[in-house]
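Query form — protein Tryptophan-rich sensory protein

QUESTION: What is the three-dimensional structure of this chain?
INPUT:
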Amino acid sequence: MNVRAGELGSLFLFLALVLGGGLVIGFVTAPGAWYAPLSKPPFNPPSWVFAPVWTALYIMIAIAGWRVWRGGRSRAPMKLWWVQLVLNFAWSPIFFSAHCTDIALGVIVLLLITIIGFIVISWQRDKIASLLFAPYAAWVAFASVLNGAIWLLN
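ANSWER: The C-alpha cells for Tryptophan-rich sensory protein are given below.
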C-alpha cells in the first residue's frame, strides 16, 4: 500500500482522534477513590501498566482504521472500526464514573466481539489492519476477564 504525502494528513487525523479521545476519556474517568478499595484479582496488573499499553494499542487502532478507511469508507471493516471505537470510549465512563461494573462487562464483551469481527472481516482486504488488531483483541480479552473478576469480587 503506497502512501502519498497528502494521505499522511488523514493518518494524523486518525491518530489525533484515537489518541486524543483515549487521553481525554482516560483523564476524565481516571480511577479514583471509588476504585482503590475494590477487591481485585491477583492477576490485576499494576496501575502503571495501563497507560503505555493503551498508548501502543491506540496507535495500532488508529493505523488500522486509517488503512481500512483508505480501502473503502462505507465497507463493513470501517463500520466495525467505528463501532469498536464507540464501545472502547464508552467503557471507562461506565466502569469508572458510573461505577457500573456489570454494564461495563457487557460493553467490553461487545467490544471484544466487534474487535474479532473486524479482524475476520478485514483479513481478506487488509491483512496488516487485521493483524494490528490482534494485540488489541488479546488485551481486551484479558480486560474482560479482569472486569468480570472485579464485578464478581465486589
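ADDITIONAL NOTE: The mean pLDDT is 94.
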